[in-house]
Amino acid sequence: MSKIIKYPFSQLYDMASGISSTKEQAGHGSPFVSFSTVFNNYFLPDALPDLMDTSIKEQETYSIKKGDILITRTSETIDELAMSCVAVKDYPRATYSGFTKRLRPKTAGIAYHKYLAFYLRSQLFRKAVTNNAFMTLRASFNEDIFSFLNLYLPEYKEQVKIGDMLYSMEQKIQLNKRICAELEAMAKTLYNYWFTQFDFPDENGKPYRSSGGEMVWNDQLKREIPKGWQVSSIGSVTRNYDSKRVPLSQNERDIMKGGIPYYGATGIMDYVNRHIFDGQYVLIAEDGSVMDVKGNPIVQMIWGKTWVNNHAHVLQGCNGYSNELLYLLLQHIPVVKIMTGSIQKKINQDNLNSYKISQIPDPISQAFYEIVKPMFEKIQSLQDENDELTKLRDWLLPVLMNGQATVA
């Protein structure tokens, strides 16, 4: 068993604040690490998704190098504070957000950065953060809290073995996510081509509209649609199911311990030991965060045994509409037209069901389903694999860190 040694965190790393930027700087310029990127990743992506217009001096001051750890500096809840993300390479010209902190190693050969990526997200360290953090209007991470935190590390060689093994698992998870994103992008492109541009294959296999297919004006939809198509509504192509919040009474709190996904409006919130759905369904956010950052509705595809809380509508396609077609259709609804409420935005069921759409004829919807079905089956398979890898990683993490198991 490898010996575990205690180190003050501040003894091994220097902490520095991020850049204070303006709205005018955002969206162009050099690579930039946002709060969201740090919060959602164990490791910085190979290509950073955000840009910031920064000077050469700022790029030197707020640089990002291999082995750096970025952590979230502030959050609305203590549980989300000091979430970490590690750089496995240098990022020339990149800077990082003022809502994050950078931890740069002072020494080599004591803490292995890939090991730290998992250690800092482990239950052991997260508990240490929440015990030392303080809360006013928002949770905040500062030099004082940093000085109270300790790292309990095995020998460096053991860290390398563990870190490299877990990193390879994380790389597989990220590869699967990229494949899923590409497959979904392909399905969305096909949907747009067939049902937004109306270039679905005609009876001769040619794109309908581009080949001169007749289009007619529809007053209800305020646009042209293919001749012979009818106007319908979301409610006529869906079945609605009742979602509900997990019971919070004292005698039923044990429901929160299990392996069944518990979905909210934007994704999995927790895992429970009971389910209310079993099969494939489409979710669209009902209230709270009903839109993503681009203003599109938040739509999810779920399958298997699940529980969905009352912040999401639970739907299945019917009358010629597969769940896959419904999933893509819902992403094209202009949310602002069906939301109600001034402070708390909401998509109620009546507004959703009454939203008008062009009814796709069954032969065309079936042809579309036959093409996208294998894409969604592959997505489901890869996401199931990621769930298993994540569970395995989370199970291995504590037993490897406390020396109960070793990597050969």
Note down, in words, how this protein is organized.
The structure is a single chain. By secondary structure, the chain is an alpha+beta fold. The protein starts with a strand and ends in a 7-residue tail after the last helix. 33% of the residues lie in helices and 23% in strands. It has helices at 9-12, 35-40, 56-61, 113-119, 123-132, 143-148, 156-196, 323-330, 349-354, 362-401, and strands spanning 5-8, 13-17, 26-33, 50-52, 69-72, 74-75, 84-86, 95-96, 100-105, 134-135, 139-140, 150-153, 215-218, 223-226, 230-233, 238-241, 260-263, 268-272, 277-278, 281-285, 299-302, 305-308, 312-317, 356-359. It is elongated, with a radius of gyration of 25 Å. Helix 4 packs across helix 7 (156-196) and helix 7 (156-196) packs antiparallel against helix 10 (362-401). Strands 2-9-5-7 form a 4-stranded antiparallel β-sheet. The protein has a 4-stranded antiparallel β-sheet with strand order 16-23-20-21.
